[in-house]
Amino acid sequence: MVNLVAAQKPLLHGLMKMAGVQPHMVEIEPGTVMNFWVPNETIKKPKKGEKKSDTPTLTKPNKPVVVLVHGFAAEGIVTWQFQVGSLTKKYSVYIPDLLFFGGSITDKTDRSPTFQAETLVQGLRKIGVEKCILVGFSYGGMVAFKMAELYPDLVQAMVISGSILAMTDSISEATLSELGFKSSSELLLPNSVNGLKALLSVATHKKLWFPNRLHKDYLEVMFTNRKERAELLEGLVINNKDPTIPKFVQKIHLLWGENDQIFKLELAQNMKEKLGEMATFQGIQKAGHLVQLERPCLYNSCLKQFLTSLLESEVQK
Hints:
Elements: H1 4-19, E1 21-29, E2 32-39, E3 65-69, H2 76-79, H3 84-87, E4 92-96, E5 105-106, H4 113-126, E6 132-137, H5 139-150, E7 155-161, E8 167-168, H6 169-179, H7 184-188, H8 193-203, H9 212-222, H10 226-236, E9 237-238, E10 251-257, H11 265-275, E11 279-284, H12 291-294, H13 296-316
Parallel strand pairs: 3-4, 3-6, 6-7, 7-10, 8-9, 10-11
Antiparallel strand pairs: 1-2, 2-4, 2-5
Protein name: AB hydrolase-1 domain-containing protein
Pfam families: Abhydrolase_1
Organism: Salix suchowensis
């Protein structure tokens, strides 16, 4: 029987190309490759008479760069499918697939957010990105925070949705207990239709209905590399109830679903206070953890408003 989720992938890929991005695989080092969706205009077209290369040369972006970093339950273009077309006119948009998502893979054993951040930075530099604004969702937000901390020369600013600086054991235990799950893997790596339904139930404000077959097909297509992803979840949790807050030099905009049950509004507001004057907060009503998918038009409007304001302030400097 045809997997419905796999069958619609070529359609999504086609829509992404129409929106202005296409896939490009980057070898970071032997044994480590990362897939990026890169701006169409950065891919050099072969000269007349030349054969089309499997790995075309990329040119540097000629517009401000926005990098969209996905969360744990889906790869890049699935997470950001409603944002890409809204941004590509004014920005060079890059959508990476983090390691063990969407074709990105490594033979290294490090599963920490720091390793994800370092690998992503290497990949971005290989494809000509020198400065960028990061938009990080959930797990991708934690990777984005680490990138901003370690590479302030690369990261100009950040927009963070449904994420935290670091997953301490106390936050992890409290969140899982409140949601009724025994472990992060039980929540974020469901292995049954009921498990996926439970994840969607806590991740969205409006309760969604899909036939069981669609849930089953999604599990088969999106939850690959289960062993490695379970290790990524283990690598997230740090044994520190009060982690040191890095001194970020970038502006950080927290763009949140006000009904987020995983990382609640109070957590976001508390994080804003800890981050200090460089941080701003904006809530989106009637949206849960998957805010960019539930309220895409409003999310895009808020995101573009921040980006415009940021770039205007850069020009005035």
